[in-house]
């Protein structure tokens, strides 16, 4: 577990967030980075299968200062200690077999990659392409990721759409800077070339 990807402020928040361990699980780039250690984390994304109970959520956070920027029945966005935290209702069963130092649950790496694949067609953030680049290059094939995504999301996941999206970079959001923790990080062009090749081979 690569805890070095977390900032000092994130580590300070872990004991507070541990009160959500039974209901919520950690996902996204932070969870992937905890598995493989490729880049710094910038946020916490915490998912649960059922709707969010905001009163309960706020009560559990009463020991820290935070500012809510958005809240409805299925999503709450906030900032605490400069760290973005999102609580999200995700209506799919996701197995959570890993533990972050007894603080939070999270899925295994293949499941996290499948969730990224599922989300890729719904948003276009550069950090998602970066995460998938490392997973595909060093850990799992596109076929393995697609198979897992089909298991989790059934007919809502379309493998060909995911494969095509891997090689499509128009309209990508670069607002969130990627800070690498590896000695020789790839350039943007290297990542794009690799993903284009993967996409072409898969179509």
Explain what the structure shows.
- The protein is of the alpha+beta class.
- The chain contains eight helices and seven strands; from the N terminus they run αβαβαβββββααααα.
- It has helices at 8-17, 28-36, 54-60, 109-120, 126-138, 142-153, 159-166, 188-202; strands spanning 25-27, 43-48, 67-71, 75-80, 83-89, 98-100, 104-106.
- The strands form two sheets. A five-stranded mixed beta sheet has the order 1-2-5-4-3. A two-stranded antiparallel ribbon has the order 6-7.
- The mean pLDDT is 96.
- This is Nucleotidyl transferase AbiEii toxin, Type IV TA system.
- Keywords: Transferase.
- One of its GO terms (molecular function) is transferase activity.
- Pfam families: AbiEii.
Strand fraction? 15-25%
What is the straight-line distance between the termini? 34 Å
Write down the domain tally: 2
Largest sheet, order of strands side by side? 1-2-5-4-3
**Which regions are unreliable across 5 or more consecutive residues at pLDDT < 50?**
none
The Cα radius of gyration reads: 17 Å
CATH architecture of the largest domain: Roll
DSSP summary, beta strand count: 7
Specify the CATH class of the largest domain: Alpha Beta
Q: How would you name the CATH homologous superfamily of the largest domain?
A: JHP933, nucleotidyltransferase-like core domain
**How many individual helices?**
8
**CATH T-level topology of the largest domain:** Nuclear Transport Factor 2, Chain: A
Shape: globular
Rounded mean pLDDT score:
96
Structural class comes to alpha+beta
Give, in order, the helices and strands: HEHEHEEEEEHHHHH
């Amino acid at each position: 577990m690569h805890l070095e990807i977390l900032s000092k402020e994130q580590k300070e928040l872990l004991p507070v967030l541990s009160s959500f361990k039974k209901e919520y699980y950690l996902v996204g780039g932070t969870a992937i980075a905890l598995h493989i250690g490729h880049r710094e984390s910038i946020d916490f994304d915490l998912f649960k299968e059922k709707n969010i109970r905001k009163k309960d959520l706020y009560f559990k956070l009463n020991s820290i200062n935070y500012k809510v920027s958005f809240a409805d029945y299925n999503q709450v966005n906030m900032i605490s200690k400069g760290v973005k935290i999102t609580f999200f209702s995700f209506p799919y069963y996701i197995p959570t077999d890993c533990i972050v130092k007894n603080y939070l649950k999270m899925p295994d790496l293949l499941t996290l990659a499948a969730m990224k694949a599922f989300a890729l067609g719904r948003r276009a953030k550069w950090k998602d392409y970066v995460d998938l680049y490392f997973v595909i290059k060093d850990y799992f094939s596109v076929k393995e990721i697609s198979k897992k995504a089909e298991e989790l999301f059934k007919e809502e996941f379309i493998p060909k759409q995911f494969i095509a999206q891997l090689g499509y970079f128009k309209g990508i959001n670069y607002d969130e800077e990627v800070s690498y923790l590896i000695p020789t990080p790839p350039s943007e062009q290297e990542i794009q070339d690799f993903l284009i090749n993967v996409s072409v081979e898969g179509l």
